[in-house]
Amino acid sequence: MKKIIVASTSTVHGSGYLAYILPELATFFKEATTILFIPYARPSGISYEEYTAKAREAFAKIDKKVVGLHEFENPVAAVTEAEAIFTGGGNTFELVNQLYKTEVLAKLQEVVSLGTPYLGTSAGSNICGVTMMNTNDMPIVYPPSFDTMGLIPFNINAHYLDPDPTSKHMGETRETRIKEYHVFNETPVLGLREGSWLAVNGNSIELKGKYTARLFRKGKEAIELSSGTIIDSTILSV
Q1: 79 vs 38: CA distance, rounded Å
Q2: Which residues contact 223 (CB under 8 A, 6 or more apart)?
């Protein structure tokens, strides 16, 4: 049975790395002693080692060990044998590129589908969707495909931002860009605001956190989903 947390971000304003969600993670990862960290999306300017150390420091607060996937000679075997997995944020194009390059993506999808607990934040959440096509990132590399794990039946737009009515910026809003996506694509898109996450248990997908999320479907008005909403096929198609 799938057991996944799909979080918009790793860090909310004014708090430390993963601090806002650590109480939830203590329960979520209660059966695991070691978490395999996938650092491939690494933020600009830091190494895999530095990124893994950041995750290690955060998880030490709930008595969990962290090892980086880059430390293993055979990354596919490491994913296969992992007790639990965390993929952090950064650039989704680079993350997906490396997951294909190392042949990890298919195995990751398999083990998470079979029940290995998985946490994604930002880019690590984007890959839970059908494709990575609703990332906010620049295409700094060219992955072999935009197809990702398809663990949930829609795409994620992490760090979703509402239009600022006081802004003088006249460019596209996040909502405009998602509507442009739906000119050519059918897959629903969920705009996840900072501090919100999805709790996936088997086929149940529940929105959690303090904020609403905005659901976009091709040819329909966007709707707000309140925390506690179960996102099922009825909501996705109504």
Answers
A1: 9
A2: 214, 215
* Residue 154 CA, distance from chain mean position: 12
**Torsion angle defined by CA atoms of residues 66, 17, 70 and 75, in that order, rounded to the nearest 10 degrees:** 70
Instruction: Respond yes or no: is residue 167 known to be catalytic.
Output: no
- Note the pLDDT tens digit of each residue in 185-236: 999 999 999 999 999 999 999 999 999 999 999 999 999 999 999 999 999 9
Whether residue 137 lies in the annotated active site: yes
Q: How far apart are CA 143 and CA 96, in angstroms?
A: 6
Strands (DSSP E) along the chain, which ranges?
3-7, 34-38, 65-68, 85-87, 118-121, 155-157, 189-191, 196-201, 204-209, 213-216, 223-225
Quote the CA–CA distance of 21 and 120 in Å, as a whole number: 12
Tell me the DSSP string of 197-219. EEEEETTEEEEEESS-EEEE-TT
Choice among 8, 122, 125, 196 that is catalytic? 122
Q: What crossing angle do the helices spanning 92-101 and 105-113 adopt, rounded to 10°?
A: 90
In the numeric block, the tokens 């947390």 are attached to 5
Would you call 65 helix, strand, or coil by DSSP? Answer: strand
Q: Classify domain 3-237 at the CATH superfamily level.
A: Class I glutamine amidotransferase (GATase) domain (3.40.50.880)
Task: Tell if the pTM clears 0.90, that is, is over it.
Answer: yes
- Indicate which residue of 113, 147, 159, 182 is catalytic: 159
Catalytic annotation, pick one of 8, 10, 70, 137: 137
- The yes-or-no answer on residue 227 being catalytic is no
